Amino acid sequence: MENTKATINVSLEGSYFKPTNVAEFADGPPFMRTYNEAAQARSLVPLTPKYSDEQILNTELGLNPYVYPNVDWFDLIFKKGNFNQCANINVQGGGSKVTYYMSLQANHDTGLLDAPKYFYDVNINNWDYNFQNNISYKLTNTTKLDMRMMAQIGNRKGPNYTVADMYKSVMQANPVAFPAYFPAEENDRGFIRFGNAETKPRSFGQNPYEYMMSSFKETNFNTLNTSLGLNQDLKFITEGLSLTALVNFKNWSESSYNRSI
Known about the structure:
Layout: E1 4-17, H1 28-41, H2 53-61, H3 73-77, E2 82-94, E3 98-109, E4 125-138, E5 143-158, H4 163-171, E6 181-182, E7 193-194, E8 198-200, E9 203-204, H5 208-213, E10 215-233, E11 242-260
Antiparallel strand pairs: 1-2, 2-3, 3-4, 4-5, 5-10, 6-7, 8-9, 10-11
């Protein structure tokens, strides 16, 4: 706006994100009983149950979580919710010749993964910075020059896989096949002893906890978009006639690296 004092606006926002309609997962003993019943219902002859009464009872009693695991994979992998932050500061004003608007915004997102620190931190930690600068200058009473510049800078840290794939791994995991991990032993040097077992002959299951901790990726990116516009009023030729010229420049780059164990 022309002929206005500089106005400064500052805003800080915090938000709590929590997923809705989360599936309720069966505990270990009900899962085993239901599995036995379903397998028998599909067979015309009596079957030896995959899960014995002793295994079901010992799991129910929590006798030994490493021998009789009962893992809530969803609760182990994901947090109940997360806090995100956003901050913005902008300045605007102008005189008879020049008007301006400048804005700087920072966004922070932490995601829902709940991973302990390993040789890297796979928890999602995203920062985005946006800078907007608009300047309008009257060269003459009939000629106006507009410059708009937008810069975006971002840093993303997290796993080297999609969270959708992580969710799929959790949904397909068996809660009683193996524990998430075994106790640490001497000379482990910080490595986690992830649990696993044969779920089929010569075939091991996928441990969602191990999958979560298996890789890390960091990405840095930036984009610069600048436009220069010239508007010339040609009403001296005929009323309503004008000429507009626009030049645009865009530059972007991205780099990333990943680690895995």
